[in-house]
């Protein structure tokens, strides 16, 4: 059973490494969808020879991320195979083997569910982004080079999730400019890009919204839930933005 636990731990680490790499790629200006694909490609060693790879190998920071993933990929694959074999070593009966297989299957199903969970994804992305901002200069390099965004202003991609404050509402109803936030564009499922969307555009679950504004507002919007609590947060940030000069650094709006 120890080998089964080891296998699950190895898989969890692999998923976590992929998630960290995905967030790191997005901090260099890559879209969320492409960042996920490139992170998984580099870690597994499959599908990386695409036209999108040119935007990775031609970018020094992204190239370093890929090199780290490639170093980890070989050891990760061997660890999974080794622990999978050890999981069934010493099994004395068919019942014991089926029991261990059932534990592995249940654990994998649980991990897949967690990986697709909207709240878990939002919480994990916020934690990873904060850590990467503290220990790396990924964000500074990218924003300075692409958009010349510096200081307390930023650009982020915010997924529209079920139960989120942004979901199923027209852009105008959100009154984001009153919070000092601008909607630069919306990426729909299937890759459709809506740049500078009109105010009557309804945001749908599955959309990814590109926002520009002060970082505390952007962080709050990414985690803001629908309902009275979300509306109260919006009112609080609108009041704070109205009373604060644009050049001043943002606080938490409280």
Kindly describe this structure.
- It is globular and about 70 Å long.
- It contains 10 helices and 4 strands; from the N terminus they run αααααααβαβββαα.
- Helices cover 58% and strands 9% of the residues.
- Helix 1 runs parallel beside helix 5.
- A hairpin with a 5-residue loop joins strand 2 and strand 3 (193-195).
- The model has no long low-confidence stretch (mean pLDDT 76).
- It starts with a helix and ends in a 12-residue tail after the last helix.
- Strands 1-4-2-3 form a 4-stranded antiparallel β-sheet.
- The protein is an alpha+beta fold.
- Which strands sit side by side, in order, in the main sheet? 1-4-2-3
Q: Report strand %.
A: 5-15%
State Rg: 21 Å
Distance between the termini: 50 Å
Look at the helices and sheets and give the structural class.
alpha+beta
Tell me the series of helices and strands, N- to C-terminal: HHHHHHHEHEEEHH
Number of strands: 4
| Major sheet summary line | 4 strands, antiparallel
Attribute tags:
58% helix, four-stranded antiparallel beta sheet, alpha+beta, globular, 254 residues, single chain
